[in-house]
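Hi F.,

I've been meaning to write this up properly since the lab meeting, where we talked about keeping a consistent format for the predictions we share between groups. The idea is simple: the sequence comes first, exactly as it goes in, then the structure tokens exactly as they come out, then a line or two of notes. No screenshots and no reformatting. I'm using this chain as the first example so we have something concrete to point to.
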Amino acid sequence: MFQISEQCGATLVDVGAPLHRPSEGVVFRSLVIGLTAFLTVVDLFATQAILPSLARSYGVTPAAMGFAVNASTMGMAVAGLAVGLFSRHIDRRMGILVSLALLAIPTSLLAAAPNLTIFTGLRICQGLCMASAFTLTLAYLGEHFSAADAGTAFAAYITGNVASNLVGRLVSAAVADHFGLATNFYFFAALNVCGALLVYFTVQRTPTMRETTPGMESHLDAWAQHLRSPQLRASFGIGFCILFAFIGTFTYVNFVLVGAPFMVGAMALGFAYFVFLPSIITTPLAGRSVTAFGTRPTFWGALGLAALGLPLVLTSSFAAVLLGLVLIGVGTFFAQAVATGFVGRAASSNRGAASGLYLASYFFGGLVGSAVLGQLFDRLGWAACVAGVGAALAIAALLAAHLDMPQGHATQRSH
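Output, unedited:
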């Protein structure tokens, strides 16, 4: 359904590239792509909405439960690299289909995980499956969409990811509150199966990719080449910092909201995640902003917006905290879209390898963020955790000074 004959050869799509007239059927394809993205990563953050309930169920600290839940990012980092390494030999449709079908297995087993160690292991398995589907879908979009459609397709995929943060958390809180924790995981396993069925009926089979980079002996050579680029090294570090800050905020704010003075219940906690709704609207505008203002000003503006939300989440006003979360969500999602698009432009060759490195760094940042900021939260409190988030945003802003294109670098996608 959403395959197009023209191949672009890029894994990360340039969100700052000018778009031409899109082909017909773009609305339907965008809907399918967004829904595929939603069903691919809906498990990643949905569990955060029930973190306090899980911590009570397993009798552990917020930091321990936060690390266990976010251990999925470890699997995503590993799978992002592995899929990038072998992606040329993997049929995109079959890879996405199998990944989403297998995802239902650890998701359902979480319902009966007897201890935190097994729970953590199952979350890692979830991450392996989610990242495999995620990376292969990004490759599919880059390779099979024309230049006129690529920007729209990528924006739809990012928007689907953003929507999963809102709807996933809301649904998880509602199901767990009314039917229990076990039913929650069974429900999301069913969603995983729905994702596999959607891919089965909408993605056409594609041939495996051949090596197309002249003089590039292996994917490892491509990684080495990308890591020698100051621009790409900076973007990888930025990806690390973005999810570090995002995870730190939206993992441990759950424990703040269920405690004094807010005392928010499980269902109300889910509704609090309507703070992601503005991000669904603003994130697709990242490409236009880059075109109008440039990469670095747009990125710094996004980080500045997120930084404005930090003092608000430290107040005792529920409305102020929600506003702060809105600003942090909009800023970090916008910054992620800008950074992802920059990687697609800055990688002069083998964008699949650049994609794998960026995603691995991004998800590893989430894992480290959950561990480091969890310890700060447990030992020093919410203010120290927020200070750690601010430090990550500041480092990302410094790294953004390198987000300029090399002289004479070609920004056009290879065809």
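Notes:
The chain has a mean pLDDT of 81.
The two ends are 21 Å apart (CA to CA).

If this format works for you, I'll send the rest the same way.

G.
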